[in-house]
Amino acid sequence: MSLETRIALVVGLLALAVAAGLIWRARTGLSKHVTSGEVIDLAEIGAVKNGQPVTKFGQKVTFLQFSSEFCTACRQTAKLYSELEQVHPEILHIEVDITNRVDLANKFNILQTPTTLVLDSRGRVTSRIGGAVKQQTIQDELGSFEI
Amino acid sequence: MSTSTKSTPAGIDPRGPRFGASITAALLLITVFLALDAATLGAAFGLLVFVTASFAIGAFLGNSKHPYGLIFKKLVRPRLAAPKELEDPRPPQFAQLIGLIVAGAGVVLYLVGLQGGLVYAAGAAFIAAFLNAAFAFCLGCQIYVGLQRIGLIKKF
């Protein structure tokens, strides 16, 4: 293969990787509206917070975050939600580790972690956030719940 | 706070694995370049064996034993400010394992005579390493649950 062709192929591969990265970064952490979402069963998902089973949803909104073991972005996202619920008592953040819960991954069709389901005060899914949540996404969600 | 019941190992500087990923990405891009010509295919194979070995160290012994991790610790980190936060070492270790499988597949394909497989394996591993280095892309976040759902990973 000629030197020119080899250089062109290598540059093309690099360009492909850059394009993939830019697309991924633009799309990750955005919120998708869910129409007629289901109501979450807290017992079924095994929601635990500070060692206690969670029995109530957040007063206005619940961020139900699905995480897994080999996931750096899950820690960062959990930190953002935790800080949020410190400031706003009407918000609840629940983190569920699905490393050993393939049933939940299948049920909610989770392909990546973190995946966050945004629940209204009755526990109904109103939107879904795939990937590490963006600050702007959080602001928009809070706005839609009048927080 | 977190509801994880497993104990979390001591945190590492998140810039360490990304530093290593940039070296790996550069080596893999050179591998692809060399693999595209019959005259340098042997050199490409040698380089891919080296990268595969470094993935094996990262996957089985962890980032602290990884040669790039050591370079980072000895030469790079002393020149940087302290990290804002530490990170769990398991996600980058999982990414090293995936790298080992992909790059290792290229080595095996070459050895059984399917030399064209080398360039695809090196190319795929390059994209993952590059995304990790340049965009903080976390492979474990993206594929672990999917692999588990299709039954490739079983955990009890």
UniProtKB/TrEMBL annotation, chain B:
Keyword Transmembrane helix: yes
Transmembrane segments: 19-36, 42-62, 94-112, 118-147
Entry keywords, A to Z: Membrane, Transmembrane, Transmembrane helix
Residues covered by the DUF4395 domain: 12-149
Protein name: Unannotated protein
Organism whose genome encodes this protein: freshwater metagenome
